[in-house]
Amino acid sequence: xxxxxxxxxxRHDIMNKVLKxxxxxxxxxxxxxxxxxxIDEDHPQFRGVFAGNCSTEQVQEExxxxxxxxxxxxxxxxxxxxxxxxxxxxKKTIEFHTYHTKIFYAIYDKxxxxxxxxxxxxxWPTDIIYPYKGKPYEIEKPILDSKHQYEIVQEYFxxxxxxxxxxxxxxxxxxxxxxxxxxxxxxxxxxxFLTQILCGSIxxxxxxxxxxxxxxxxxxxxxxxxVGDGSFLVRNCK
Length: 238
Hints:
It is built from eight helices and ten strands. By secondary structure, it is of the alpha/beta class. It has two domains: 2-128, Rossmann fold, CATH 3.40.50.1220; 154-237, Rossmann fold (3-Layer(aba) Sandwich). Strands 3-2-1-4-5-6-7 form a seven-stranded mixed sheet. A three-stranded parallel sheet has the order 9-8-10, with helices on one face. The termini are far apart.
């Protein structure tokens, strides 16, 4: 049994309830791209980012091998699902949403995750709680072979970038390469990720960076913007 945390859990500000639930049940937890900063990646139960075919092979294998999937606040948009490459069986998926709950194929209206999760945490059967003993989450370090020793390849870049980002920073990724690049980038503790996954608006990152910098100016947080020249020029012209 596993838990997948998605955008609506973050947007509706129930991550404290989600955290209590996963820590009480001791279940392994995954996040989607739209919930990337929802769970601290140093948390012992964190297992990675699930985005269909855009996930690492290890994450895909673990998710698809699960006998039961508890999906919290799912947002099945194109980018968030790795181009609609989810292959989650409805026969073994329970979905917790803002205004309803879906158990396999049955939908229960007005049974929302904000009220249900605390009750589920309180009444979770103690005989199915087992201390989580999984290995700490790790992203395999890319190896530069002789063929690529003078090239900066995508795998290496995104892996190395996280080393230069301090804890509690704000990272804003532009739609496209930057957005997909951060999916499997290791997130330093306390980092907030902002990206236009839902609408895919190019140029979003530049304006968002200004807003984020103003909002966080009293928090002493650094802002990093990952944007290409095309999107920058689109926004700059406006």
